[in-house]
Amino acid sequence: MTRDELIAVCLSYPDSYEDYPFHDEPGAPDAWTVMRHLGNRKSFAFIFDREGLCINLKCTPDRSIFLRGYYRGISPGYHMNKEHWNTLKLNMDVPEQELLTLIALSHALTNPPIRRRRYE
Q1: How many angstroms separate the most distant Cα atoms in the chain?
Q2: 79 against 57, higher pLDDT
Q3: pLDDT tens profile 62-97
Q4: Structural fold of domain 3-110
Q5: pLDDT tens-digit series, residues 25-40
Q6: Please, which pLDDT band fits residue 49 given cuts at 50, 70 and 90?
Q7: Alpha-carbon dihedral of residues 48, 92, 109, 30, nearest 10 degrees?
Q8: 48 touches 67 (CB < 8 A)
Q9: Element (H, E) at 81
Q10: Contact (CB, 8 A) for 49 and 2
């Protein structure tokens, strides 16, 4: 999967947008692309190049430990909280379906809460 394909997958989620907060030029090979929620501006994916294309995704701590032991292409989050974030190195041993599942999980974990109206 390419950088553009990863960005397209992330943008397919409702109210998601692409950001370049580190003053990188969009499309530059060394740019950090941050995928965020419109509602709370929380990040759910960081796409970058570090000896190959990588993506940081939020995960539950128990699942993080399992995935790191199961796949060589998953390690503790680069420049992130190691308990809650994983770095996935693309084009290694992580199947594409697993990658898509982990993007969905990261999006869900960082999604703004639904506000319920109070009727009085």
Answers
A1: 57
A2: 57
A3: 999 999 999 999 999 999 999 999 999 998 999 999
A4: Aspartate Aminotransferase, domain 1 (3.90.1150)
A5: 887 878 899 999 998 9
A6: very high
A7: 0
A8: no
A9: none
A10: no
Three-class secondary structure of residue 37 per DSSP: strand
Q: With both helix axes pointing from N to C terminus, report the angle between 3-11 and 96-110 in degrees, rounded to the nearest 10.
A: 40
**Domain layout of the chain by residue ranges:** 3-110
Burial of residue 2, with CB atoms counted within 10 A of its CB: 0-12 exposed, 13-18 middle, 19 or more buried: exposed
Contact 25, 38 (CB under 8 A): no
What confidence score (pLDDT) does residue 38 get? Answer: 92
pTM of the model: 0.88
The gap from C-alpha 77 to its chain's centroid, in whole angstroms, comes to: 10
Long-range contacts of 2-6 (CB under 8 A, 24+ apart): 2/53, 3/33, 3/47, 3/49, 3/53, 6/45, 6/47, 6/53, 6/55, 6/90
